[in-house]
Amino acid sequence: MIGQHLHKIWPQNNSQRILSDMGTEGAPLGYLDDFSATGNGATKEIGILLVHGFTGSPSSMRPWAEFMHQQGYTVRVPRLPGHGTKPEDLNQVKWQEWPRKIESELRELQKTCTKIYVFGLSMGGGLTLYTTQNHQEKINGIVLVNPMIHIPLVTPTIAKIVSKIVKMRKAVGNDIKRKNVTEYAYDANPIVGIYELTKMLKATREHLNKVSIPTLLFHSTEDHVLPVSNTEIILKGISSKDKERVELTNSYHVATLDHDMDIIFEKSLTFVQERS
Predict the structure, then answer these.
(1) Exactly one of 83, 253, 260, 268 is catalytic; which is it?
(2) Is residue 57 part of a domain?
(3) Pick the catalytic residue: 57, 122, 220, 268?
(4) Given 223, 251, 258, 268, which residue is catalytic?
(5) Residue 223 appears among annotated catalytic residues
(6) Is 83 known to be catalytic?
(7) Does residue 93 lie in a domain region?
(8) Domain count, the chain
(9) Residue 40 domain-assigned (yes or no)
(10) Cut 0.85: pTM above it
C-alpha cells in the first residue's frame, strides 16, 4: 500500500516522463540566486515578482524577468528556501518559509513600486495564489503558468507516511520540449519536501475563493508533471471576474523556457499594461 501511494506522488509509467540530468551543476553565475533589477522610465514603479517551482530555481524565471525588465519594469526573482542548493536542503524546510520569503519580496517592491504583479510557475503558481489570498490589497494581478494546486491522490497524511520511509525519489524536472534546455532543477525529489508542499497546497485550495484580482493562466496541453485538473480547479475556485486561460500547444511543463515562452512573455506584458 505504501509503495502504491509513493508511486502516485509522481507515477513512473509510459505516459509520465521521469526526467533528471546534472541538477544544478553548470548553472550560469547567479542563476540559482535571488535576482532583482530596478526598472526605468514610465514603468519603473511597477513591480513584477516571479516565483519558481518545486525543486526548481530562479533560472526558470530569469528570461521572463529579464524580458519584463527590458520593458522598464522593476523585477524580483527570489530563490525559495530549500532550493538552488542541494536536494537534501528541501527536506529541512517548513512550508511556511516559502510564503514568508514571498511576503518579504513584496515588502521590498512596495518601497519603490505603486503597483505589483506576481507571476508563478507550477508550485510557484500555488504559492502565488496562497500569497494573494493573504495580501490581495498589495497585488494588482497574477499570471500563472501550469500552476499547481494538488497532487492527485496524495494527501498530506499519505505524503507524511511515505516521507518516513523514503527521503528521496527520482526527480521530475526539466519537462521541456526544447532540446538542450535545462531549468537547473534538482536531480532528486525530496519526499519530506513533498509532504510540506501538500500541506501548503491544501491550505491554498481551501481558500481559493478569496482570490478576486485579475488572473491570466497559461496551460500546456502536453504537461508530463501536472494533470489539467490543476488548472480546472483553480479557474473554477477563484472569484476573479477578470480571468483568462491561454492554451500552450508547443511546450511541456516548464513553459517559461520552452517553445511558447514568447507567447507567455508578450501576453503577460499586455496583461500588465492593460491593468496599469
Answers:
(1) 253
(2) yes
(3) 122
(4) 223
(5) yes
(6) no
(7) yes
(8) 1
(9) yes
(10) yes
